[in-house]
Structures are given as C-alpha cells and as structure tokens.
From TrEMBL:
The active site is at residue 267. ATP binds at residues 148, 211-212, 236-239. It catalyses: beta-D-fructose 6-phosphate + ATP = beta-D-fructose 1,6-bisphosphate + ADP + H(+). The lineage of its organism: Eukaryota, Viridiplantae, Streptophyta, Embryophyta, Tracheophyta. It comes from Brachypodium distachyon (Purple false brome). This is ATP-dependent 6-phosphofructokinase.
Length: 542
C-alpha cells in the first residue's frame, strides 16, 4: 500500500485557497504498506483481475496529528463537477443551526491522553457536505447484505432507502438478493420508501443473505452493466474486506461509483469502532436465556444452568450479558483460557460454588474452550464459505464433562440444564437503541457517498460518526482485553477464578503493549501490517 499527500475535502469542493493553506502546514508521512488483498488479487482465483495498488491517504500535522483519510472520487476523476446539496432546501433541516459538516472536521481515535501525548490518529468526520458529486436524478444505488443475520439489518436497509429518497430526492434504489452472489446470479429488487416502510419491525433481512460468492470481476461487471453508481455493502469484517476489493476494481476501471461499507457483526468484534449495530439487542435478548437458566438452577437441588451465547473469537456478548444479569457465577470467553481438571480448575470451582450456594449459572461464548474440545476429540480444523473456522459445540461438551465429573461423586447429585439461544438472539428485531443507531449509520453512509467519498466504512469512533478506510477495520479483530478493568468487573461480579497464572497475565500485558507499539510504528515508518485472513468468499493470505 502506497501513502500519498492528500488535500482536504475542501479542495475537492472548490475551496482551493483553503486547501493550499492547509497543505502547506501538513507533511508527508512516508509509509509503504502493501495491502494483503492486492497480493490476493494476484493469486490464481476467479475473484478479480485487478492489480491496482490501493493508495493509503495519510496527512500529518502539528504535534503528532495524523489523518487516516478515505478515498474520494476526485482522486482518479479530478474533473468531476459538484452541485449544491439538496439538504439546504429541505424543510426538515430548516431549523438546523449548521447544515453541513466543516470540511476539515476530524474525529480522534484516542481521547484519553497525557499532557505530553501526541495528537494521534484521526478519521474524517461523517455528515452532509455543502457540495455533492451526484445529482439526484443520476443516482442509481444498490444495497446488499452479506454474512450472518444480525438485529437491525432491515432498519439499515430502510433508512438507506428513505434517506436517499427523502433527503436527496433519489428515485432509483435497488436491492441485491442473496449476498455477493446476487450481483451476478439474480435480478435486482426495486426499493422504495413505501416498500420498506415497516421492515424495521421484522428480524433478518428482506434481501436475504449468504456466505461466500465473492467474484470481484463479475460483481463489478454487474455494477457497470446496470449503471449502479452507489453501492452500500452491509456485513462483517470479511464482507468489508470484500468491499475493499470491489472498490479497488471500480477505481482501476475508472468508474464513477461510490463503494460504501456499513459494518455488521453481532459479536462486536470489528476493530476501531465503538460498537456494531445489533449488539445491544443481542445482550438484551441474552438476558432471557440467563434468567431462564437461573430459574431452573435455583429450583433444583445442586442445579446448574449452562447458557451458550454467540462469540466466535470475541466474548463481548457473554461479558456484557454477565454484567447486566448479576445472576451468573462463571463467564467463559475465547480470550481467557480455562482448564477443567486439577486444583483451581473449572470443575473444582463448580463443586465449591454448589456447596456454598446450592446452584450456579455458567455463561460460555461459542468460541471458548475450542482447543480443549479439539484435543479431547482429535478434531481437524475446517472452515465455512466465509473462511470462518467451524466451531464445535462447547455448551454440549462442557455440560457432558460436568455430568461425567459429578457421576464420580457419591451423594452429590446434580441437575443440569443446557440452553442454547444462539439463533433466537440473532433473528429478533432490533430494539429501540439499535434502531436509532442504525438510522445514524445509514444517514452517515449516504451523506458520504453523495459527497463523493468511496472505499470507506462508517461507524462511531468515541461517540462521533466517522469515515474509516477499509483496511483499518479488516487488519485485526476487536477482542476483550482480559487485562482491562471491564473483565476485572466481570470477575468481581461472578467471583470466579481467572484460571490464569501471574505469568500468563504478565505475558498478555506485554502482548497488548507490543500491539499498541506496533501500530504506532507502522504509522511512522511504514512497516507492513498483517490483515485478517478471511474475506466473505475471498481468501486473502497473510
């Protein structure tokens, strides 16, 4: 990935003098980073013939200020005309004190600093711009949902359609059915404010979804043939990685088409952003299963309730559901290893808790303990169509291990109930909080597309919505930091052992410090960063 000096958006929108003044104050941060996706494109695969290397836009300023900017259509189509933003004539916005976002507004990634700290990394602030690069009648927008289900998908679809139509006067919006493969294997579905009016009251996605099916050349051919010039791609980190490849091919062909990502993952494992939509709903719904498990356990002699929640690589749902419930006695997540047998092990803790309280509730994330299960079953790793590792059922395995342990104990009968609400949680409609959040995400996304930005995903960073380059949310996953205070709060709530030695904890602290130092070094000296090895149907090598 090549880094370049970039003028602020003001230059792209006509304020040349302001842009030149800003550019004089800013310095080039030399950084060579070859995007793993580009290497993947060169591999013999039907995904795409694209060999164009994405340019990373870094702008430096005083006191260690770094703007990780997003691409703009004028980067490769400099002669594009601009138009007044229709919002200035929208009656609904007549009471707004400031219609448009200042062109130089940025959002800082880190808000807790010391007096000697550098200003650090910033992202471009999301919101409507005074000038736009699309006229209302020329916009032909497409929306696609990929990957697994998540509460709020229909709300995002609804708000994208209604926002484009009501705020910008767009009349041509279509849906792509069945995920990425729908671009080249199915007809589009026309979407209007009337047709999507009440879809936010339903779970799932009206467009359907799938894993895999990413064929870059066919997808971009479809965009080109259908005259689509704005595409909104809703999905997780693998889907966003695929969107990045689509953007690269669109740019290589010189098409006027904004490629915009809306990050989606019920596990809340997307890096950089505050949280993903659907997460609040998932935590709220998880309470129902935990409450049921607690009632069952409390009502039986030596009752044990085991609840498995979603969390493939990150245990955020389990952690927050545990804290919200206060009825959980043990929370197991992928980030915190545990062991069963021996002194200080899980089985010893269960036995002690039953003797003390007469019942207990265990919450386990689906990705926890996978190494233990694989060892006991001699299991060989396999993957799904998105490149995700197929997980074994830790809930069933753990339940059986607990039963086997207590069978050996005389005069210690137990009653164990196992509850798996996984697909019930992700299939529900979004709650009020997530509905509002989805609305803000959709509006921020379409404002960015109309302003000519492309190759970005939109999400809140420290409470402010921002436009984030694709590579920043696909280079690693967000995980629970078990050396952080939030996990300590869980341990205080459950009074469970951490199952880690002092040496293990110190090593994890050291790893966290190294990761933080590595990112800062990459910004300064251009060291390559490793990217997530999965894409939705498109494998990107490390």
């Amino acid at each position: 990935m090549e880094s370049v000096v970039v003028a602020p958006a003001a230059a792209a929108q006509g304020a040349v003098a302001v842009a030149e003044q800003q550019q004089q104050k800013k310095k080039l941060l030399d950084q060579k980073m070859e995007l793993p996706l580009v290497a993947a494109l060169k591999a013999p695969a039907p995904a795409s013939p694209c060999k164009w290397a994405m340019k990373k836009k870094l702008v430096g300023g005083d006191a260690g200020y770094v703007l990780e900017d997003v691409p703009h259509l004028t980067d490769y189509m400099p002669e594009l005309p601009t138009y007044p933003n229709p919002l200035q004539d929208n009656p609904a916005y007549s009471v707004v004190k400031q219609y448009f976002v200042n062109t130089d507004d940025t959002v800082t990634q880190k808000i807790v600093v010391h007096k000697t700290s550098a200003r650090g990394t910033h992202f471009r602030r999301a919101g409507p711009r005074q000038r736009v690069y699309f006229q209302s009648d020329e916009v032909n927008a497409a929306i696609v949902t990929c990957g697994g289900l998540c509460p709020g998908l229909n709300t995002v679809i609804r708000e994208l359609v209604c926002g484009l139509c009501d705020m910008y006067g767009v009349t041509s919006v279509v849906g792509i059915e069945g995920g990425y493969k729908g671009f080249y294997s199915r007809n589009t579905v026309p979407l209007t404010p009337k047709s999507v009016n009440d879809i936010h009251k339903r779970g799932g996605t009206i467009l359907g979804t799938s894993r895999g099916g990413h064929d870059t050349a066919k997808i971009v051919d479809s965009l080109q043939d259908r005259g689509i010039n704005q595409v909104y791609i809703i999905g997780g980190d693998g889907t966003q990685q695929g969107a990045s490849v689509i953007y690269e091919e669109v740019r290589r062909r010189g098409l006027k088409c904004s490629v915009v990502g809306v990050p989606k993952t019920i596990d809340n494992d997307i890096a950089v952003i505050d949280k993903s939509f659907g997460f609040d709903t998932a935590v709220e719904e998880a309470q129902r299963a935990i409450n049921a498990a607690h009632v069952e356990a409390e009502s039986a002699e030596n009752g044990i309730g085991v609840v498995k929640l979603m969390g493939r690589n990150s245990g955020f749902i389990a952690m927050y559901a545990t804290l919200a419930s206060r009825d959980v006695d043990c929370c197991l997540i992928p980030e915190s290893p545990f062991y069963l047998e021996g002194k200080g092990g899980l089985l010893e803790f269960i036995e002690k808790r039953l003797k003390d309280s007469g019942h207990m509730v265990i919450v386990v994330a689906e990705g926890a303990g996978q190494d233990l299960i694989a060892q006991s079953m001699n299991f060989v790793d396999t993957q799904d169509a998105s490149g995700n590792k197929l997980l074994l059922d830790v809930g069933l395995w753990l339940s059986q291990k607990i039963k086997d342990h207590f069978k050996k104990k005389t005069n210690f009968p137990i009653t164990l109930k196992y509850i798996d609400p996984t697909y019930m949680i992700r299939a529900v409609r979004s709650n009020a909080s997530d509905n509002v959040y989805c609305t803000l995400l959709a509006h921020s996304a379409l404002h960015g597309a109309m302003a000519g930005y492309t190759g970005f995903t939109v999400a809140p960073v420290n409470g402010r919505h921002a436009y984030i380059p694709f590579y920043r949310i696909t280079e690693k996953q967000n995980k629970v930091v078990i050396t952080d205070r939030m996990w300590a709060r869980v341990l205080c709530s459950t009074n469970q052992p951490c199952f880690l030695s002092h040496e293990d904890v110190e090593n994890m602290k050291h790893d966290d410090d190294e990761q933080h130092h590595l990112h800062n070094t990459q910004l300064l000296d251009g060291s390559p960063a490793k990217c997530s090895p999965k894409c939705n149907g498109f494998a990107a090598p490390l």
